Amino acid sequence: MSLAPFDAATLFGLMGAILVGLGLYGVVLLESFLRRLLAFNLLGGGVFILFGVVARRGAGAGFSGDPVPQALVITGIVVAFCATALAITLIERLGEEDGDDASGGGS
Amino acid sequence: MTALVLDGGIALLTIGIAAWTIRAGDDFAAVVGFIAYGLVLTLAWTRLGAYDVALTEAAIGGGATGVILMRAGARVKPAPASRPSRLARIIVGALSAAVAAGLAAVVLLPPQPAPSLALDVREHLASTGLGNPIGGVLMAYRAADTFLETVVVLLALFGVWSLGRDAHWGGRPGPAPRPGIGGPLPLFARILVPAGIVIGIYIVWVGADAPGGKFQGATILAAMAILAGMAGLVAAPATSGRRLRWLLAAGPIVFVGIGLAGIPLAGAFLAYPPGFEKPLILVIEVALTVSLAAMLALIVAGPPERSP
Amino acid sequence: MNAAMLATTPGGGLLVAAITVPVIGILLLWLVRPRDVETVALAALLANLGVALAVLEKVAAGAAPLVYLIGGWQPPLGLALRADGIAAVFMAMAAIVLVPVAVYARGQFGAPGERRPMVFWTMLLAITAALNLIFLGEDLFNLYVALELLTFAAVPLVSLDGSRETLKAALRYLVFALAGSVLYLLGVAIIYGAYGTLDLGGLAALRGPDGALLVAVGLMTAGLAAKTALFPLHLWLPPAHAGAPPAASAVLSALVVKGSFFIALRLWFDLLPPERAVAGSTLLGVFGAAAVVVGSAMALRQARLKLLVAYSTVAQLGYLFLVFPLGLGSGAAPFESTAWTAGALQLMAHAFAKAAMFMAAGLVYEAIGHDRIAEFRGLGRIAPLTVLTMTLASISLMGLPPSGGFSAKWLMLTAAFGEGAWWWVLVIAAGGLLAAGYVFRILVPAFTPPEEPAARKKPVVVTREAAALALALAAILIGFLPLAPWPLLAVGRIAAGAP
Fold it and tell me: Which residues form the NADH:quinone oxidoreductase/Mrp antiporter transmembrane domain (chain C) (predicted)?
């Protein structure tokens, strides 16, 4: 096992690692549900990029990347959108029920 | 070298926007930050050579997610700002940094050579009749994932509907349209919607052989439906409508129907009889596109808010 | 790359049916006339029970797993479904629980075609499909899709009544569940990057003491623990499970939290090299032990029955995590060990007893119009069958003989003694005493004669009482199975043949 060459994949891989760290910090620590949801999506973006890095490193057979992880990301993005939509609707509905405590109060 | 500088710039920008979104003072600023994040992430995907993913990220990750976030930003009252204690920030910060460091180590010490299924995908791609390897993965090798994902989207829609009020069940989503919307929006929509529909269908069609596909195409079609609705060109459908329900179910029904027919005809669930792979996949993709576009548009529209 | 090529086995088609039957049921629900919705849902659940029992029969008779290659594609490119002994047993258990729950829930949610019945039956079938896929799935990403399906089905059940409290509980649950999924997915990315496959069978052959694997399993376990409500990530569970309607609570507490646990079990027993797993498993055991103590102590303090029952779930889930140190520490053959059978029995006994308990709690509410434990005096006269159900379910939760709960805890104690691990013995004993404390808080007033005769608030529906009683009886009956490791639970386990 040796150090990865410093190429685009490695660079974006490190970016993905940092995005995951930032997102995790936000998901755990932010108070409002809306902000936590945004942090969840930042975190998800980082995870997907890591799949992209894996795909890029697996480029071969005439493909610019391994198609399997790329396909997984496409599925993952759609699922993450659905999760976000469900959460947003819950947040909005909760805001309707109680105007004073619209999006806060979670822990 | 210049390429690496460009990539470094994109990476720094992405991290900067992400950090800004986490720290932003108010909810609206954070939503705007997140939409910018979706855009730069799309750039990163193109730099990684993943054009199908870039298209999906732009259409769904940034686009559709951005729209519902804006909707929430406009409706939800901002939460009172409260800062977690210093101790909590230090502990969570250290934990998050440890995870990031662990991931960085994994990134920096990859197995050599990198494992990949690219060769296997290529080897069998001809038998699927598709030219786009990602289409092959989504519609043949891992078709079960794609089928279940469609069910997940449908369930998310039912989950969104479930959050409406009892009195509105089966009704139309969104507030009642204002009578006569003036301004440039209707005109704009009249021009853009037909063009968007053509682009959406084109993206599904080329997805068999080039970057594109049903999810991306469906999102564009859904966006056109939403735009037409905003401009007052079409009314939001009643969620209890029978035609609407058949429209939503058509994609999954065609998918599972062809999948089950594969058991006697091709020897396995979700296998396609030799010679009929590409036409059958196209039939599934068309049905899925229509249903997914309806699902996505209705998810964005939100729960029913008017009595049926 | 693969140790062995897989092939579809005779009877493998049943595994496809296990996934497609509930999904087709969901589609039909939205297309048939509203008054036929319950009939379609019940028919789908009965068909599902038939499929699950057929799978169990085939696996038991052949003493070999059933396998199905979807689309005929060989992993790692394609996706496989596989029913080994424990998967077949759990799938049958889930199918058995779902039918009485459906009988109990019939007609409970208002007129056909309204919001609540449509949502309830849709989500119940979606949970069925997701659980079957979790038990049968062999691909880590396929399992991710199943986990998300489970989450999207469970969350709307929590907020079914639409009150502010349940909306908030649902949102908190969703935040935990989504954070859990994304951590799991992160692990999937790392594993694919390290091995180029997500097939659990293929990975078991490739596994080594790699740092990447440890990072991945660590992140995935944290995510799955959040979804399973393992202490200290349990805070979402009590409001969510207590706020849902009783029939939904029964499924959430008995089955849904077991889905993520089952995947964690597979990661630790099938994926981690045993020598690496032992060290981390102690930590999981410690969290489990803390859950037993803290969950039981919280249950003792609750004034309302549903919250007490929900905190009891936190405690009973804690026992499940003792399987990791006890099963992995036992040496070469974890799947033939006492601990492995103990864990499976605990999972099943809790599922039956807890579903019965939540359903009984609903019946109590209907009988007396509230669920304040302090005012249960005379309940035994008003709702004798329901109190009998609670008594039988409580026997299993406390771990008194004869019951599934007793067998599970007895086998766990045997395993702990076998290893000289007296600290786990203490936890199991303390948990039993605390459970006795909280169930007697319910039962003692319920059996006390009332000061003045009271009347039922709502007429009793005997089929609904019988449905709850049947599940409580099931919790007792599995206690009559032999007190020894079951060979069926070791059938087809991946690591059984590997070093």
Answer: 138-429
